[in-house]
Amino acid sequence: MSLLPDLTKYFTPEIVATFAEIHQPRSRFQLEKFVIGSQDTDEMRYYQCVTEIQALYYTIKQVTLELEKTRIEIQRLRATGDEIDEIEAQIKELGIEQTQVVGVGAFRELEILLDIKKSYPEYTRKEIEADQSNYWSKRLDRQNISANQQAIEQTKTKLKEIK
């Protein structure tokens, strides 16, 4: 007797395909405006973009190897003919399915980042280093302006409370 209903009537292949259809950790808007666009110079926006691509590259490569390893483990588990090993194999298959859905989103994000990268010149490390004084000047100015605006709003609020 199972305490859970048969999930297959709720989670059809079409529903599972929908998971992959909508999955993407960050939208193009988020990547452009908040991840890359949060940097204050083109050199640092380029740097941030390349850093994001690098992180995805190594994650995707590692996950690909993990999937390959898991498929081999599934084959070995099934080869035993043991009932518990069969359930373990099914659990691993579920993990593969979930990883594939996540992988779809990762590849979408990678395509967006590669497209964004095209909008910048190919800066060298030397050029990025040469821009650091400019970058930090702009960044600190932006942070000071933001802090000043917060202080003004807090002062207005306090004045209203005093009245």
Give structural attributes.
163 residues; 80% helix; mainly alpha
Give an account of the 3D structure.
The protein contains six helices and no strands. α3 runs antiparallel to α4. The model has no long low-confidence stretch (mean pLDDT about 90). It is mainly α.
Strand content: under 5%
The helix/strand order is: HHHHHH
SS summary, helix count: 6
Please report the distance between the alpha carbons of the first and last residues. 68 Å
Shape: extended
Helix content: over 70%
Structural class: mainly alpha
Number of E-state strands: 0
Major sheet: none
- Which runs of at least 5 residues are low in confidence (pLDDT < 50)? none
Q: Give the mean pLDDT.
A: 91
Query: C-alpha Rg, in Å?
Result: 25 Å
Write the layout of secondary structure elements.
Layout: H1 13-22, H2 28-36, H3 42-80, H4 83-117, H5 125-130, H6 132-162
Helix pairs in contact: 1-4, 3-4
Q: Briefly, what is this?
A:
By secondary structure, the chain is mostly helical. The chain has helices spanning 13-22, 28-36, 42-80, 83-117, 125-130, 132-162.
